[in-house]
Amino acid sequence: MSHPALTQLRALRYFDALPALDPQQLDWLLLEDSMTKRFEQQGKQVSVTLIQEGFVTSAMLDGERHLLPDDARYWLREILLCADGEPWLAGRTVVPESTLTGPELALQKLGTTPLGRYLFTSSTLTRDFIEVGRYDALWGRRSRLRLGGKPLLLTELFLPASPLY
To answer: Which residues does the annotation place in the binding site for substrate?
Structure first.
């Protein structure tokens, strides 16, 4: 199962340098905190539509392979993050199997819980980088995050209804 927004997310092209954007767009794209929390601050009820999740091989990683350690399998989760039922963001999380130990096993059991609700409660969360990308008129970003030093990759595409636009 897939969704057109996830096809667009996988087609994002990343900039080597930060593009010239207005301050509001940069504020959204470079947000270090939880996107779920930001959406809720807009007075919206946030929900997740789960598109797919499960283990995949490295052959299923779309240009992401070089950003993660070699592993036998990766946990892949693709979702739409909705505000009052309207999709605002498509998200793709890739987690090396070696990351899924200890408390991080919970990443496999999120279901319709927003990733941000789990990640941003951890005192061990760090972010290595944010890369800004674009597909047609849509903006996105990807970040390598670490929980207890263990990596995962999060890619987000802001959909047309999102307040980024």
So the answer is: 35, 77, 115, 156
Instruction: Give the model confidence (pLDDT) of 42-53 as tens digits.
Output: 888 999 999 999
Element (H, E) at 139: strand 138-147
Q: What's the whole-model pTM score?
A: 0.94
Dist. CA 50–CA 128, nearest whole Å? 26
What is the model's pLDDT at position 44? 86
C-alpha to C-alpha distance for 88 and 116, rounded to whole angstroms: 15
- H, E, C per residue of 41-103: HCCCCEEEEEEEEEEECHHHCCCCHHHCCCCCCEEEEEEEEEECCEEEEEEEEEEEHHHCCHH
Q: Which residues are annotated as a binding site?
A: 35, 77, 115, 156
Tokens in use for 63? 């240009």
